[in-house]
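Retro notes, structure queue

What went well: the backlog is down to a handful. What didn't: a couple of records were mislabeled last round, so from now on we paste the full input next to the output in the thread. Example, using Glutamyl-tRNA reductase from Chromobacterium piscinae:
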Amino acid sequence: MHLLAFGLNHHTAPLSIREKLAFPAETLPRALESLLASQAAREAAIVSTCNRTEIYCSSPDPHAALDWLCQFHGLNRTELEPYLYRLEASQAARHAFRVASGLDSMVLGETQILGQLKDAVRSAEHAGTLGTLLNGLFQRTFAVAKEVRSNTAVGSSSVSMSAAAVKLAEQIFPSIAELNVLFVGAGEMIELVATHFAARNPSCITVANRTLERGQRLAEQFGGNAVTLAELPETLARYDVVVTSTASQLPIIGKGMVERAIKARRHRPMFMLDLAVPRDVELEVGKLDDVFLYSVDDIAGIVEVGKEARQSAAEEAETIIQTRVAEFTDWLKKRETVPLIRALRDEADRARRHALEGAMKQLARGDAPEKVLEALSVQLTNKLMHPPTQALSSGSGAEHDAQVQAIARLYRLHPES
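Corresponding output:
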């Protein structure tokens, strides 16, 4: 079994590729079960966000695990290979530690990814795909993230994607307070962005969601109202700002819908921020006049603000991570000896049971207990001493010298020369 982490992220792949590998939350249980059923992995957890899709697994064949990913999404492996990374053992642990600590994020030091990682682990637990190896990895991952947050300033002065959304809108409109803002979706990302917009007191806040009840619960937090997704074609024209982040596998706002909205608005500009992966807004919408469409990758420049101030703290974090990776690697090596330890104990137990059976038979015949115990001790001693004695009596040269030193160390012997 190999500890393996593979996937792609905003560093290695554009949004057009990332959205092809996204795992909506409702598909995760089926995907995890499918991966284990394929025998490409014994344990697995899937992390899927707008910036990354990563699979952490215990796999006997890394190539088989990659093949499963391509087959699950119906993609050609050669199409994805240029964008994929594959990390094993200590490198996989280092990557997980960096991701959880916010060092691999679009926003250096951001904290949202840690919650997303924990959600991925919970999903794996519920699906029954999290075993001893991955549990050990992720428990250490969360501990490292906490240590980095507590002992460095890597998260200070960061501009979140949510705050960046407001900054983008303010580059187009003079005042948020005069705008009608529409949020499409009711998940965590939308809630975060809505919080930042609400702080600017926009003229109107509306939440559009597939289920009206959930949309209303979110809208009430910000003194807004809610509509269903089915009402979008009739209501879209009312809004100056549209922020969308749903789990839909297909775009829910098309070019025709936006064209009609712009016409009804008499060509007043509309700012649209699509934070969904896969995208919620058709790419062609960005070509329309009077529409300013941005994707999650387009706001990368804004979230760079304050990065230099956090870079020195990131170096401190890397030092912490390096130490914890070494400890994890040591744990992995010790795990590799578990089968050998188990086999050694099984062999010793077989010898014990065999000797005990013989002793019980002797006692049943009426043999003196003292003689039976003596014979039992001699038999066990001979059985346990046979392998090392045989090893010392065989071999030659460097191999024999190594065996002598190993046995002396194991048995804590210091024979006089």
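Agreed that this is the format going forward. Reviewer comment attached to the example: Residues 307-336 form the longest helix (30 residues).
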